[in-house]
Fold this protein.
Amino acid sequence: MLLTSTTVNGAVSNDSNNNITMSVGNNVIANVNSSGIFFESGKKAIYTGAVLQVVSALKSDTFSTSSTSFTDITGMSVTITPTSATSKILVFINLTVGHAANHFSPVNLVRNGTNIAQPTTASDHIATLNNYAGEGSGITAGSAQPQYALSFLDSPSSTSALTYKLQIRTTGGTTYVNTRPVSQNGTTVSTFTLMEIAG
């Protein structure tokens, strides 16, 4: 056995089946057997702020909608299952959106059907992210491709599977993801990344 009582700040013991128990005083920290290391409830081998897992989605195709109600952006949905209820979920959004002149393209971040990362100031077109294509010509006449970017630290307090997704709508005309409203000839990619951060 490689572990001995001199290698840790506490005690290490093993039974007749070579199951190893690691403890500090009368507090059992973890048990080790041929299947791995199993920490007692509330104990962990990581520090607050450590990245526990990363999941992401890459959207390389285009999407469009003329709906004035929020609708799912295909390919912009990611599921993560936190390992601890104290974990935080760090969300990174990079989304390229093109929309019609004189209109908004609001985007919401949704977790398990609930809008999160919402503004507290009321307005006609509130959302997690938004942009407006103003009147005029050229870049303001619906030919722009603004990039929506956000980093958001969520505290779901859960160990169940969590599905995060992006929803978009238009206030008029057609809204596009990963391309321009004018001739759709400026294609890009968008990314959606979740990191579980130890709490």
About this structure: Residues 25 and 182 are 70 Å apart (CA to CA). The first strand starts at residue 11 and ends at 14. The chain has a mean pLDDT of 86.
